[in-house]
Amino acid sequence: MKKIALALAVAVIAGIGAWFVWRPAPAAPQVVFTLLDGKQVAMQDLKGKVVLVKFWATSCVTCIKQMPDTISAYNSYAPKGYEAIGVAMQYDPPNYVLNYAQTRQLPFPVALDSKGEIARAFGDVRLTPTAFLIDKQGRIIKRYLGEYDVAEFHATVEKALAAG
């Protein structure tokens, strides 16, 4: 009886462990981004691309520090099927966001999350910068919070772009 109980316990633990290792990546929420120019882009429209959704604020020192890397990655990978969307936090004044995007000539779309709905849909994002890397099938493959390893980020993007 003890052997059966032990075997059952091992099987349950192995199953739980396998679920954590091989569980499918969660799907990105089906949100609609309202861009600075008033255009709307639905997450659904981005399927087939590798997408970075980056929550940021003009008052966030780390966000501003990371912006040159975000621009560089966008410029490098956009021709290969990569998209980035900067999502300005609800508390960020729209005129500050617009001014920053224009003066820095941000090459990627910037959305205003004026009601906080996008942040809530992505797990109630409150800290910036927070970014989500989404694969071509619309699944979240990586979440970045604060500082990140730029080389690892590039390797992950390249792997996702190469995947079918």
UniProtKB/TrEMBL annotation:
Q: Which InterPro entries match?
A: Redoxin, Thioredoxin-like_sf, Thioredoxin_domain, Thioredoxin_ResA/DsbE_sf
What sequence ranges are listed for the domain Thioredoxin?
22-162
Question: PANTHER family, alphabetically?
Answer: THIOL:DISULFIDE INTERCHANGE PROTEIN DSBE (PTHR42852), THIOREDOXIN-LIKE PROTEIN HI_1115 (PTHR42852:SF17)
GO molecular function ontology, one term from the record: oxidoreductase activity
Protein name, as recorded? Thiol-disulfide oxidoreductase resA
**Which SUPFAM superfamilies does the record cross-reference, listed alphabetically?**
Thioredoxin-like (SSF52833)
This protein's superkingdom?
Bacteria
> Which Pfam families does this chain map to?
Redoxin
The source organism is: Bordetella pseudohinzii
